[in-house]
Amino acid sequence: MVSISPDGELFTLVNVFTVEPENQQRLCDHLAQVTEDLIRHMPGFVSANFHLGHDGRHVVNYAQWRSEADFRAMHADPRLEEHFAFCRSVSQPRQISCDVARTFRGVGEGGN
């Protein structure tokens, strides 16, 4: 389960991939498959969530790792070179590392 909390000590990444509409689902499927087969088994991986922009031109990945060092180790793994090359070939990726500042839930969802 994804835990989004300003009290968490997780390393959070938001990846925004700008794509041509014909590549949106293709990229999302690729990201999901690589995550299922390899990334989720790596040390420090917590979660990944993929979102398709209604405009057909964006895939957004919200990912969490136990630490930035765990994320960097994944990124340096040579088994993922083809994955990153594919992503760059079908999209313009933008990676943003974040700290969770605030979260809110609806009153009907257990929030105040």
Automatic annotation (TrEMBL):
Organism in which the protein naturally occurs: Streptomyces caatingaensis
Domain ABM: 11-100
InterPro entries: ABM_dom, Dimeric_a/b-barrel
Official protein name in the record: ABM domain-containing protein
UniProt cross-references to PROSITE patterns, sorted A to Z: ABM (PS51725)
